[in-house]
Fold SprT-like domain-containing protein.
Amino acid sequence: MNAGQGLRTRKGTHHAVRYCKLRSRRFLVLHPGKHKPMEIINRAIRSFDRPERLWSREQHGALREWRRWIKDWAGPSAGNKPMRQAIRILGKIFFLGRLRRCTFAWNQELYGGRVMGFTVPGLTSAHIEMDPKDLHETDGTKDAVTCHIGTLLHECVHAFIDVYTCGDRCRRLSCVEAHDFHIGKTGHALDWTLLAARVQRTARIVLGLEVKLGVCDGISCEYESQQFMIQHPHWCRLNGIDATELKEMLVWIGLAQEAMGWDAASIRAFAEKQSQRIQEVIALGRGSPT
């Protein structure tokens, strides 16, 4: 099969992640909106979650670029252009070199100051906005630089997933149905959680910054969003909520906690605490709309 050739099904087309050889170099071929979520997430993780000596030539070059960039960066006052350069560099290190089309802007009134960053997906690219204020005390990081870079990585994970996974744009019914499990209501479900947790761990080693990508906050936000939806009996009945689906949500949360380094006892205690909630929601879903 040639590079980029689609895997055709009755419901739509997915594209495999493949390489195209041109002369003496190999190029990774990705198609916006055409890849199965976990395939591309796992491919990205494998590319950087390994000893640095096993990284590609492009990743090593990007790491040298990063060290020069972070040394020279003057902060938000330097404007948008340096941040676009940072996105390109971080894309080479963590995201298969595929964030070159992202645009960026500082926004002092981002949702009334309620969020630190936001990503707007497009068909073939994404636009990232961030609050330029120094929020490192709120974020719990060392300084403003560490806070901003953590937020940028958080949004880059969103951008990568939004642009290259099929998500709810897919014509395959199975992908649409799995959207909440993989992508979620807020974008912080299984795919984002697994990739963000690995990016955070590796970034702390290779970037020299104790960044925080807000993985815990993302999980909490997504869980509350999904839980809010299933608290409505009418919604439960229409969407066929059952014990299996709710248990899958706990599996997702468990995987996320494991990725963040939670010990087995903590994960087990959380699962036990939520077991009663599962039964309550199942019973609620069988009721009549109020």
